[in-house]
Amino acid sequence: MSWIAVAIWGFIGLAGLLFVIKVLYGISIALVLPVTQGALYVSTARSRVAALLEAVTPEPGQLLVDLGCGDGRVLRHASRRYRVHAKGYELNPLAYLKARLLSVGYADVAIRRENFWKVDLSSANIVCCYLYPDVMARLAGKLRTELKPGATVVSCNFPLPGFHPDSVLRPEGRRTNDPVYIYRIRTPDMKKARDRHPAGTAPHGRQLVL
Fold first, then answer.
1. What pTM, to 2 d.p., does this model score?
2. Tell me, what DSSP letter sits at residue 150?
């Protein structure tokens, strides 16, 4: 067989593989569409992941939860850099399998193929999400009900209705400068303190949140 024939068959094989992957991707989205309401598996740039975690500076031993964790890169970076316990929920079967494979060897990273709407988030110190606007109002209600005071919420691209962000990040880079909203769950007294210092700082320059 000539090299031309080998190249042709190689191209056909590659094209076939890509077609199968696209079909599986479409099927995986369709399977979870009733829950995700159209949200797709889209990987977050690693520089963006590093920037948002640096902004909230998780403490060792804290629990970070990623709702719709994709391939788990936020979880692995948080575990490796900040030594937190990281737990992710992902229904898309392809993304879930990828996350499980890439997270092998990370003792403090757990990937669950569960519907996070049915999960109690009260033990989470930090909750991260990159979801569609259609579900943000419902998510805001769940977080307001379940998270304890002092917990931090990080939402990529879309704000939480009814929440006042403590800061809005725009990481540098043409592909990574979409907004990242950072919130802190407050008691009424904490809200009053924030309102007295709208710039986000307490007396003597001490930051209230970040």
1. 0.74
2. T
Helices marked H in 46-201 — which ranges?
Answer: 46-56, 73-82, 93-102, 133-146, 188-196
Does the pLDDT at position 179 exceed 80? yes
As beta bridge partners, residue 112 has: 89
Rounded Cα gap, residues 45 and 152, in angstroms: 21
For residue 6, name the pLDDT band (cuts at 50, 70, 90).
low
Residues in Cβ contact with 143 at an 8 Å cutoff, skipping those fewer than 6 apart: 121, 127, 153, 160, 185
Strands 126-129 and 152-156: parallel
Is residue 89 a contact partner of residue 65, using CB atoms and an 8 Å limit? yes
Rounded CA separation 196/37 (Å): 39
> What pLDDT, on the 0 to 100 scale, is given for residue 206?
28
CATH code at position 184: 3.40.50.150
Confirm if 72 and 92 have CB atoms less than 8 A apart.
no
State both tokens at 81: 């850099």
Average pLDDT over residues 48-64: 95
- Do 6 and 55 sit in the same domain of this protein? no
